[in-house]
Amino acid sequence: MNYEKLIENLNNPKVQSRIASVYILGMVDEVRAIDTLRKRYARESNHQMKQAMQTVGGQLAKAKREGYDTIEAICEHFHINKELQMLASEDEEAKIREIQKNTSRNKKDDNFNDQLWSAASEMLQGGAMAAGIGTPGMNNVVNVDMTSNLGNTTDVINLHNKRIPPVRPRNDDISLWIQRLMTEDDPDTRINIIIQIANMHNIAALPYLANVYWTDEDERVKVSAKKYGTLLYLNAIYWQMAQDGSMQQIIAEKAAKLGVILSEENTIQVQPSHAAHNQSIEDILTAAEAKRKKKKKRL
Q1: CA 285 to CA 12: how far, in whole Å?
Q2: Could you report the per-residue pLDDT of 74-88, keeping only the tens digit for each?
Q3: Dist. CA 165–CA 26, nearest whole Å
Q4: Are 200 and 219 in contact (CB under 8 A)?
Q5: How confident is the model over 11-20, as pLDDT tens digits?
Q6: How far apart are CA 139 and CA 108, in angstroms?
């Protein structure tokens, strides 16, 4: 359920499917959809759908004003920007190391000469040279510190700055986890279930997570559904862009602006993906509504 599929589904003849796509777009802050939603709103006849588009459209407009961008969110979360910044700084760091090395070498030479003159001065003052004894040898020369007072620039690469590759979307069965999510009463347990669902990397979970985000009464659960639903979505987009080469193009453009020459090691290598299971959004919402009503009856 990628961006194109969500946009395409806005024209689905079934109202519930259209609404589900709108709410998913809102949950993941897909600001690229703003113009499409605006155009679609003008010819939408269903009142419920128009309300959903107004709500989501306002949220997306706010996110865009605050500077949110889907592709930049991918580049930030998966450390693409950090890795490029690290690569851009390597040349500068190499120059700094060379300056430090030269400065250190000059400092050591100056220290060595200063200490020789100091030793000679002390012997002259003690009359040792006048007596013809005490020729300075290794035991008479003051120990010279051969380390730089400036310190050394670390060559260790911080793994936190390395790019995180996308995870291939899977089609593992998530039905039991979804059932638990829709029927569990304890908020903390629901949050843990959301995390488990996201870790399964099945984008068929997006409608369920969107449903939780927009309808759950517990604010912490809503926040978790949005957070992990968005990460699930961003990973799927990232994977798709790695497959079609568009992410490598974005990385190349970013690298050029920073003056970074990319090596083969810095290109994205991916394997063919397995298509995730795409369950009908209408069926998902219908099942979720039935479980919610059943839950209320038990209470």
Answers
A1: 15
A2: 999 999 999 898 888
A3: 25
A4: no
A5: 999 999 999 9
A6: 19
